[in-house]
């Protein structure tokens, strides 16, 4: 007997044996001639589908793959009636109606695959929202969007039951594919929730976690149910030196905790002691810093880490023991007591400036505040207190202007003395912003900027040599540590930086207006003052800043890495 498969052809003479009858011979049928099948495979919405596998049904070896336009051409298809199969991962396999393939001819067909993958959520909250704020998401397919407690199983019946229950904090809304949808969280309680989408065929998306947090919470205690721990932590209770009379200590490396909060800034509080080690800090999944919890004497409610200003909203701090410590510490413990939260209304204003670099006397400084406030431009030496800043702002070398949030104000410098000035914002509560980087206010007619001049800004350790007539102005400075730099503002078309070269001197980097220009070698076998260390060459006429930085490199012949600054000569003429 012979088993029949359409892809197999018997080319010999057939012999059929029937019981109790004589055998009979048959003449072999001719091999059918081949033709070509071409066409296009489409996905949902008649979008051309690339990468679909197309074959003649029953002929696994006769297959092709669709191109970027979804098209295919399949030659050598046996003549006669055939069906064409198309398949692709995450799509439901489809088989065409029977098509007749004629020898040497091409027949065209269209195949459509239905997407069998679950719907996809995008545009979901990175962490969560405040209670009462809408939760937004976009779904890849028409259907329903659900926000349910994380304990609800991702099964359509369970999701629907939760959404319609009056005893469960859950909500749903109908969604159109690729259009943002919003879920109202009014009346919800704090907790961990999940977003799911369900399409018209009952397929459920992967879940997206959402934290709903109180916008009015000022402290997250270590025993708050939303704080999640990993690894081994020991709990201390009934100790009123801690907030809430309890605290926790990580006793194994890799132990971590995650603290969710809603606000604009937070401070992580804990114990520092001589048995404590280092910890890594992450905010919203991004590494921020490593903190050292060592302190010679025991102290509770220490600010271990301050986030600084953050966008107001939901955030997560991760605090992790990393198995490192200060050499003076005897162990690697890290400790968590509570998280103190501040909202935008509680934070001091944030001042910011339009532009950068020096300004000429008489040119206003443009600045703004994150809150309605009064802006002040005062000498950098002014004490950081409301009374001192207000007094300085009303004095001869001060200015002030009242602004609304994010609106810019102009701070006049007419009549100012040359020097370094700071901008502050003070709000209606009297809270003072942090100072902006110092702003040099300069005399544009000044041709020599001395090392002791009031407009020069130093960072790092510099040693001053005074009463030495070999230097301009009888003084000069020397950078004593790597990374020390000086910023020298001037007005002109060109400038020359003057200093000492000697066999104890090293190399320095030169920047003009924030851009690296070159590295200079200050080595010279014999001591020489008022050397031209660097010449800018021609510059656009106007305000500029030269940064001169010790970089910890030297000529092999030099015995040290010192760099020296005497003065800057500004050149205004061609």
UniProtKB/TrEMBL annotation:
InterPro entries: Carb-bd-like_fold
Superkingdom per UniProt: Bacteria
UniProt GO MF annotations: carbohydrate binding; carboxypeptidase activity
Keyword tags: Carboxypeptidase, Hydrolase, Protease
Protein name from the UniProt record: Carboxypeptidase regulatory-like domain-containing protein
Annotated source species: Paenibacillus hemerocallicola
């Amino acid at each position: 007997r012979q088993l029949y498969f359409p892809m197999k052809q018997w080319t010999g003479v057939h012999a059929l044996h029937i019981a109790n009858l004589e055998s009979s011979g048959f003449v072999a049928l001719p091999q059918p001639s081949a033709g070509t099948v071409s066409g296009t495979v489409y996905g949902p919405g008649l979008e051309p589908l690339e990468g679909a596998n197309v074959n003649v049904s029953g002929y696994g070896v006769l297959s092709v793959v669709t191109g970027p336009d979804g098209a295919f051409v399949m030659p050598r298809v046996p003549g006669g009636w055939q069906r064409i199969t198309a398949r692709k991962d995450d799509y439901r396999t489809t088989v065409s109606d029977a098509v007749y393939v004629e020898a040497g001819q091409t027949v065209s067909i269209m195949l459509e695959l239905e997407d069998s993958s679950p719907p996809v959520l995008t545009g979901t909250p990175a962490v969560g929202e405040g209670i009462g704020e809408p939760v937004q998401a976009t779904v890849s397919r028409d259907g329903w969007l659900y926000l349910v407690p994380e304990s609800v199983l991702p099964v359509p019946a369970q999701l629907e039951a939760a959404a319609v229950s009056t005893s469960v904090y859950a909500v749903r809304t109908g969604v159109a594919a690729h259009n943002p949808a919003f879920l109202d969280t009014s009346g919800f309680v704090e907790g961990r929730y999940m977003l799911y989408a369900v399409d018209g065929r009952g397929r459920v998306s992967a879940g997206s976690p959402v934290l709903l947090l109180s916008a009015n919470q000022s402290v997250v205690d270590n025993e708050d149910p939303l704080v999640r721990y990993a690894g081994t932590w020991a709990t201390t209770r009934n100790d009123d030196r801690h907030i809430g009379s309890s605290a926790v200590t990580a006793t194994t490396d890799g132990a971590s905790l995650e603290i969710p909060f809603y606000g604009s800034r937070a401070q992580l509080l804990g114990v520092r002691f001589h048995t404590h080690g280092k910890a890594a800090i992450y905010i919203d999944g991004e590494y921020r810093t490593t903190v050292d919890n060592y302190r010679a004497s025991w102290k509770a409610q220490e600010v271990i880490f301050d986030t600084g200003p953050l966008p107001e909203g939901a955030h997560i701090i991760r605090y992790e023991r990393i198995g490192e410590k200060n050499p003076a510490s005897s162990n690697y413990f890290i400790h968590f007591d509570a998280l103190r939260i501040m909202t935008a209304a509680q934070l001091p204003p944030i001042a910011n400036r339009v532009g950068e670099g020096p300004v000429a006397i008489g040119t206003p400084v443009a600045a703004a505040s994150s809150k309605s406030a009064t802006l002040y431009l005062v000498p950098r030496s002014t004490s950081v207190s409301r009374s001192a800043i207000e007094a300085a702002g009303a004095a001869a070398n001060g200015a002030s202007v009242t602004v609304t949030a994010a609106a810019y104000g102009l701070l006049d410098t007419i009549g100012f003395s040359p020097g370094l000035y700071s901008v502050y914002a003070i709000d209606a509560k009297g809270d003072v912003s942090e100072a902006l980087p110092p702003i040099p206010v300069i005399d544009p007619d000044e041709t020599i900027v001395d090392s002791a001049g009031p407009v020069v800004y130093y960072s790092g350790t510099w040693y001053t040599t005074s009463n030495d007539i070999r230097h301009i102005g009888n003084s000069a400075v020397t950078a004593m540590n790597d990374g020390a730099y000086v910023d020298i503002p001037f007005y002109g078309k060109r400038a020359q930086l003057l200093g000492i070269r000697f066999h104890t001197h090293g190399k320095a980097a030169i920047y003009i207006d924030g851009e690296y220009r070159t590295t200079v070698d200050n080595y010279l076998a014999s001591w020489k003052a008022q050397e031209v260390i660097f010449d800018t060459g021609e510059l656009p006429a106007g305000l500029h800043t030269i940064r001169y930085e010790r970089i910890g490199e030297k000529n092999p012949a030099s015995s040290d890495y010192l760099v020296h600054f005497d003065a800057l000569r500004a050149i205004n003429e061609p």
